[in-house]
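Pipeline run #58 for the internal structure catalog. This entry was flagged by the ingest filter as a single-chain record with no existing model, so it goes straight to prediction. Upstream metadata was stripped on purpose; only the residue string is passed forward. Reviewer on rotation: M.T. Logging verbosity set to normal.
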Amino acid sequence: MTVNHVDRDLSAMINAFLADQPAPTFSRSPQALRGRLRFDRSQWQELDALGLARLTTGTELGGSGAGLPEASILLSSAAYHGVFAPLAENDLLANWLLQTAGLPIHGGVRTACVRREPTEVLAVPWAGDVDGVVVLDVSDDGCWVSDLRSSDFQTSPGSNIAGEPRDDVRLLSDRSERVQVPRSVAEEFMLRGALARAIQMCGSMSRILELCVDHATTRQQFGRPISRFQAVQHLISDIAAETALARMATDAAVREVSTDRWDTNSAKFAIATARSCAGHASSVVVPNAHQVHGAIGTTLEHSLHLYTRSVLAWRSEFGSVSHWDDVAARLVTEQEDAWGFIVSGESPATVV
């Protein structure tokens, strides 16, 4: 991710630390192809000690006080290096909800979810591994935030297709304090999660591109590297083009939100465009990458699946590809000057 105005020393530190991390490990699980990703608690403690676990949380609350551009570097680099942890969930979602509600931020790691049913929430990221879940209750009467400790809920293990924990949460009690927040918080929660997944997808697709180039230049067929074959060149060039397009759209969304509010039409359009571009890119990048790698790319021993499966999993979280296509189209068609809105992102009114 190449976002402007990011401290180069911080970016170098993030990449150096994540590049040095061991490969992820899995436990046996009937819910996932290879198993369920293990949450590395010691790795998380190192991230926390470096100030990366609460990167955008305010310094007055024990965070690092960085902005979204810095968070995008962290999320993209983590995805690129195959470091799977609830970085977006803990910082951009859970801690942000607590800050918005004026609730204290304690130590440990948290995830976040939206609850619309009385007692159960499905597929909550990392719920069985964290110390607490920040719940955003959404109903016709309004929105409330509560911070649940592990003793307040029960989890049933599950996984997405990448093996990341996606656990069902059942509440055991409602003893936690509930603070009412504006309805706009629910929409911003969705936008934050959607942009985080776009950033992560771009990180993984960049790694997929690198794996394809490396394999094509080293794999010999008929006495020469397969990169010399025009069909392989076309596959890789399409991967590169789609990855670049998704990355540019996502960088633009990060810049837009960093200089404006999340609730403006321009911010919503930028995020919808990023998610649309990243989602459609994945439909080219993933099959092309496996075609370049041939049979070895379908094995669990090769690292390719870590990135292709994560891209496919993330593209359906916080809204599907078609959902974000529809959002982008709706925002454009509701403008009096549609072309001016597309090229400038400016709009006199906010669409609810």
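catalog note: The first strand starts at residue 26 and ends at 27.
catalog note: Residues 348-352 have pLDDT under 50 and may be disordered.
status: ready for reviewer M.T.
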